[in-house]
Design the sequence.
């Protein structure tokens, strides 16, 4: 079982380096007792970076979560079980994903509140991201509104919190469709919550920023028609 260091609170999302013990060393991956590397999932790409031990250093090319184990895909050279390693995340890439992921929550919240459309897909990248919505058909004026509303929310410098909560408690205090609770299997009873204070509360396993002030304003935004009553918003953020 791998302890995931960014899961418990927002500060864990800022861990850039960590020490760990190898618990599995297989042909195609290694696993540790704990990790700060994010595995691919939820529309967010896996972290990359490297691990080093005893004078050795190998790149982490991909990260995959399987059950309770986080698999770190590395090259041919792997540390044996019991080895203490030092992991380093490609922070520039990870931090870009954090900003983009929190930005996606903001855009999804705006679209639900103003257009009554739900998020039905998303993919985050370091330089641009996309979100699919249904049912909706955006106009150019709608995109201007979304961009301005997004920039307004970012400018409010809202704190972002991460915590766990019982599903039954969350269901009593949020709109279940807005938080996508109705889409989660009933057997999931305890949730990791990402809350943008005063704006959004949503179950999520991704990595996020501490405050909306860390997110740049939207640079470019466009729409793509992806089907009947289904539109995609593609956006990029200004360079800091």
Sequence:
């Amino acid at each position: 079982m791998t302890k995931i260091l960014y899961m418990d609170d927002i500060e864990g999302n800022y861990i850039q380096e960590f020490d760990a013990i190898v618990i599995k060393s297989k042909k195609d991956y290694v696993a540790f007792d704990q990790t700060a590397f994010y595995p691919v999932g939820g529309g967010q790409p896996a972290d990359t970076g490297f691990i080093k031990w005893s004078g050795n250093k190998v790149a982490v090319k991909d990260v995959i979560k399987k059950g309770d184990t986080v698999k770190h895909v590395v090259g041919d050279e792997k540390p044996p079980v019991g080895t203490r390693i030092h992991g380093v995340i490609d922070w520039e890439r990870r931090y870009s994903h954090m900003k983009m992921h929190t930005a996606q929550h903001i855009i999804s919240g705006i679209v639900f509140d103003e257009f009554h459309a739900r998020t039905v897909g998303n993919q985050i990248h370091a330089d641009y991201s996309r979100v699919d919505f249904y049912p909706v058909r955006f106009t150019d004026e709608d995109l201007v509104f979304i961009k301005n509303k997004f920039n307004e929310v970012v400018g409010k410098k809202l704190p972002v919190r991460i915590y766990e909560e019982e599903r039954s408690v969350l269901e009593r205090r949020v709109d279940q469709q807005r938080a996508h609770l109705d889409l989660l299997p009933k057997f999931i009873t305890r949730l990791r919550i990402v809350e943008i204070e005063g704006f959004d509360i949503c179950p999520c396993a991704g990595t996020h920023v501490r405050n909306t002030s860390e997110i740049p304003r939207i640079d470019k935004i466009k729409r793509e028609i992806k089907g009947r009553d289904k539109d995609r918003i593609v956006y990029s953020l200004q360079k800091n």
